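Title: Prediction job returns without error message
Component: structure pipeline
Severity: low
Priority: P3
Assignee: unassigned

Description:
Job completed but the reporter wants confirmation the result is attached to the right record. Sequence as submitted:
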Amino acid sequence: LVIFFLMFFMLANQMLTSTMEEKENRVTEMILTTLNPTALITGKIISLFIVGFAQALVFLLPVLVGYVFFRSTLNLPNIDLSSFTFDPAQMIVGALLAIGGFALFTSTTVAIGAVMPTAKDAGNIFGGLAVLMVIPLYAAPLIISDPQGPVAQLFTYFPYSAPVTAMLRNALGSLTGWEAAIIITELFLLSALVLQIAVRLFRTGSIQYNNRVSLKTIFARSKALKATQP
């Protein structure tokens, strides 16, 4: 859960910023002359996964090395790991939730960057997206005390609060196997859907610099193109 938050706040905003800078500097026009928009966006998201994993290692490895080899020198407190439970299945579920959630949020970030004309406008929407992700932490007492209650269930299955809520419940052992399967499937399917929408938005929005892209116009144009194809 901590790694998920670090990756999102450090890298998703970077994705939004880079997309908007390329758009405002007219770099996207040159890129799209030789590269398919789907390949471009997918490559951006995959690169964020790689960078996020590398940054997580950069943060964690020095801490582990310092604790194992230099604990007395650095006066680090002794942590009792005797109660630590190594559960591979639970760890795999947590990893899949983190990957699915990160894919959903980054795809949504690309869609926001394609629709908005300036970085300032996109930043406001990005702030609302971050709020949706943080809200489950404020409701954590209800989620922990009553995981089957209406509040916990709402946050568990709502796509943009599901990753954090499900990872929290998974860590505490209140997330059942069938719930985990439903949420993981939901996250990955919705990520693929949002990615397709982001590609459509990016095709038109990458060359619009002054006005917000109209979703109605884009989907109407897509239908018209399909109708003209033999």
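Comment from assignee: result matches the submitted record. The two ends are 49 Å apart (CA to CA).
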